[in-house]
TrEMBL record:
Annotated PROSITE patterns: PYR_CT
A single GO BP: L-leucine catabolic process
Record GO terms (molecular function): hydroxymethylglutaryl-CoA lyase activity; metal ion binding
Protein name: Hydroxymethylglutaryl-CoA lyase
SUPFAM superfamilies: Aldolase
Chain ranges of the Pyruvate carboxyltransferase domain: 3-270
Keyword Lyase: yes
The family this protein is said to belong to: Belongs to the HMG-CoA lyase family.
Pfam family, any one: HMGL-like
Keywords recorded for this protein, A-Z: Lyase, Metal-binding
Keyword field contains Metal-binding: yes
Stored InterPro entries: Aldolase_TIM, HMGL, PYR_CT
Length: 309
């Protein structure tokens, strides 16, 4: 059975980095991810650079990557200006985002949920008219840092609105990493009944160590598309020091071991993780990456001892 992985590290992961990452490193990372077999890569964001300075080089990054025909590169867009920049960069897919929580939406987008719909509807209409695919993100589906529990009717309403705008897929986000498998199964089962499992994706964070368990729970409900971030890049602004997105290496390792088809070469993926870890100069959360690098180090040490014998 095939599982689609949407790599969000270059956008959702890197946007949380305080130290500026060079344009060259971003380009190399995206190229390495594509070379590893990832067919869907969210490369950057066209949000106003004043909001996210780390991704101010979106045009340069997209100009510099070696685009592969079988890979879909996408970017997050908040409005028509962002949409125009995405079009000028030659993208064929864009992503819209909003929250299921009123307070989080106000903090994140500076608009109420009701006021956000017309803006996104306009962007979706323009993108579709240009022949672009449109993806939707719904944040705080499983919990909000300001409101706590988020009623499922909130998520249902926002998801349905996005689908009516013409998005082909809605990614349901555990933005602050509070979800547990029981909750994921209950929420996903209800939302799948509203639409169809192939129109939904899971976007889990590993803030409290339940990320992969939540993927398993979502798999049980028929979800077959998951977002993840190379090395576990990313963080939670509401939980300083906590892990962020689930790691692509960890996700692929688990899915491969369960005999799902991902189409991803784990060795090349680990090389991509090692590359960006070195660029950032700090250890990333991915457990599979840590094990891989530790094994490499032990092998190198053993080889050096033999050479010296």
């Amino acid at each position: 059975m095939k599982i689609q992985i949407v790599e969000v590290g270059p956008r959702d992961g890197l946007q949380n980095e305080k130290e500026m990452v060079s344009t060259s490193a971003k380009i190399q990372l995206i190229d390495k991810l594509a070379a590893a077999g990832l067919k869907r890569v969210e490369a950057t964001s066209f949000v106003n650079p004043r909001w996210i300075p780390q991704l101010a080089d979106a045009e340069e990054v997209l100009k510099g990557i070696k685009r592969q025909n079988e890979v879909t590169y996408s970017a997050l867009v908040p409005n028509l200006r962002g949409m125009e920049r995405a079009r000028e960069s030659g993208l064929t897919e864009v992503a819209l985002f909003m929250s299921a929580s009123e307070t989080h939406n106000l903090k994140n987008i500076n608009k109420s949920i009701e006021d956000t719909f017309p803006v996104l509807r306009q962007v979706a209409r323009e993108a579709l008219a240009l022949g672009m695919r449109v993806r939707g993100y719904v944040s705080t589906v499983f919990g909000c840092p300001y409101e706590g529990n988020v009623p499922i009717d909130n998520s249902r309403r926002v998801t349905n609105e996005l689908l009516e705008m013409g998005v082909f897929e809605v990614s349901l986000g555990d933005t602050i990493g509070v979800a547990t498998p029981k909750q994921v199964r209950e929420v996903m089962e209800k939302l799948v009944k509203d639409t169809a499992s192939d129109r939904l994706a899971g976007h889990f964070h590993d803030t409290r160590g339940t990320g992969l368990a939540n993927v398993l729970a979502a798999l049980d409900t028929g979800i077959r598309t998951f977002d993840s971030s190379i090395g576990g890049l990313g963080g939670c602004p509401y939980a300083p020091g906590a892990a962020g997105n689930i790691s692509t290496e960890d996700l692929v390792y688990m899915l491969n071991g369960m005999e799902y088809e991902t189409g991803v070469d784990l060795n090349l993926l680990q090389d991509a993780g090692a590359f960006i870890q070195q660029e950032l100069g700090r250890e990333l959360p991915s457990k599979v990456l840590k094990a891989h690098l530790a094994a490499q180090s032990a092998s190198s040490s053993h080889s050096n001892q033999e050479d010296g014998a």
